[in-house]
Each structure stands twice: as C-alpha cells, then as structure tokens.
C-alpha cells in the first residue's frame, strides 16, 4: 500500500473518530449540566452561529 492510499484511508477514519468523540463529549456535558444552563446555551446558540458566520466572511 503506497503512502497516498494509506493517507486516503487514515484521514477519513480519523475524522469520523474525531466527530464521534466530540459528539460524545458534548452529550455528556449536556446531560451533566443543570437544566437551566442547557436552556440558556441553546437560546444563545443562534447568536453564536451568526457571529461565527459574520467573522468567516
């Protein structure tokens, strides 16, 4: 197996693993948080996304 084929295999697997770990960490954080904190974060989420989109442009 040459280096390019190995890279083409490893990168997607690593990306998938990173997404799964991030999802698990976020779910655990949400489940451990107080209900009022979760509601506050979810209400602020659209503003955070809008700010990130403005900064990207």
Sum up the structure in keywords:
mainly alpha; 57 residues; 0% strand; flat
Task: Write a structural description.
The chain has helices at residues 3-32, 35-56. The protein contains 2 helices and no strands. The longest helix is centred in the first third of the chain and has 30 residues, at 3-32. The chain is flat, with a radius of gyration of 17 Å. The model has no long low-confidence stretch (mean pLDDT 87). It has one domain (3-56). The protein is 91% helix and 0% strand. It is an all-alpha fold.
pLDDT average, as an integer?
87
Summarize the amount of helix as a percent range.
Answer: over 70%
List the helices and strands in order: HH
* Basic shape: flat
Rg of Cα set: 17 Å
Strand content: under 5%
- Low-confidence regions: none
Structural class: mainly alpha
Largest sheet: none
Domains counted in the coordinates: how many? Answer: 1
How far apart are the termini? 41 Å
Q: Number of helical segments?
A: 2
Strand tally, please?
A: 0
Write the layout of secondary structure elements.
Layout: H1 3-32, H2 35-56
In short:
The chain is mainly alpha-helical. It contains two helices and no strands. It has one domain (3-56).
């Amino acid at each position: 197996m040459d280096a390019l084929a190995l890279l083409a295999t490893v990168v997607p697997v690593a990306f998938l693993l990173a997404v799964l770990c991030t999802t698990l960490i976020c779910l655990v954080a949400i489940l451990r948080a107080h209900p009022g904190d979760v509601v506050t974060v979810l209400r602020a989420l659209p503003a955070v996304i809008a700010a990130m989109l403005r900064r990207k442009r």
